[in-house]
Amino acid sequence: MTAPLHEVHPAGAGRALPDTQQGMRRRNLARVMHTVSADGPLSRAAVASRIKLTRAAVSTLVDELIRAGLLEELGPERPGRVGRPGSALAVSAHGPAGIGAEVGVDHLAVCAVDLRGEVRARAVRHVANRGRAAGPVLAELGALVDQVVAEAGGEGLWPAGLAVAVPGLVARDARTVVRAPNLEWRDTDVGELLATDLPLTVGNEANFGALAELWLGDGTPQDFLHVSAEIGIGAAVVVDGSLLHGTRGFAGELGHVPVQPEGPACACGGRGCLEQYAGEEAVLRAAGLEPGEDRVGLLAERAAAGDEDVRGALRDAGTALGIALTGAVNLLDPRTVVLGGALAGLAPWLLPSLESELDRRTAGPACPVSVSRLGPEGPLLGAAHAVVRAVLDDPASVAQRA
Question: What is the pTM of this model?
């Protein structure tokens, strides 16, 4: 287990369980689920050894999880082991699934992830959402959720909850978008407008992207600064495996850090914000290109072909990113910076000027910069996996809803 999931997952899951016999049972069910999820397939004896419980106690817990459809038996362990072979246990490929959704400026996306972490259903719609009322946008998103839930249902999965990633500030109620400048939303109660009976949580897309990096990244440390970008630029700070939210939950708005105090006006109301220099639309403008559906692909293609206008625009964007990140690195001292979102696809042309700026301005030793392998998929996958992690955290409550 990596991060305290009460911060991000659906209401009701992840609460501290009372120190009673029932609370202890629920904690032990979670320990079994996490162990099999991380290290399975495993026999009952192997699980007992790992979590330091008796085989009899583990067997009782496993039987309960099998009845609930959360674990399944795969048959005898491989031959050649000493003693009577035990039955190998694995997380079920059927049963509960995490439904993740994303509202982007130019797209809507939904996916279903099973307890093994595999994407089992997915739907994407390219649509311009900037300036649209939240009601119609969320109605379209709801239709995509229904489509994905139905497709997942055909594979024996049912939705354990829904997590929605949005490019904006989300209140601590995990339902209300306080402000999303690039969508032009203010004080939007997603829970009220998104017609769903599923346990719901709403979170900032950069936070979900960082959690995806923490859970799914290759060797990502427990302390890092994650930068996620499309049209807007967000960041998330992970300290000791936990998100740093800030007092009101608004930490990480890197895109609205000014890099040129008297620069162009920004949708947030400020001037010279990082987004005006390193956001996708800003880079396209600087390169003299028209926005299209595959903006990152267009920029990468032109840059790879040697287009000096595009390469210059990306160098300048990297410099702006380096200036903004320097303040965060000097203040927070992360172990590494992870470049995610759309920026990951442009890393070959962004990184040289970004790293040069960081090296030149950082007070302490140089902070390494790595590139996320998840790219723009991070927020959507992070949202879905937040629900999956909630199931692993408290399987008893999910079994009761099944």
Answer: 0.88
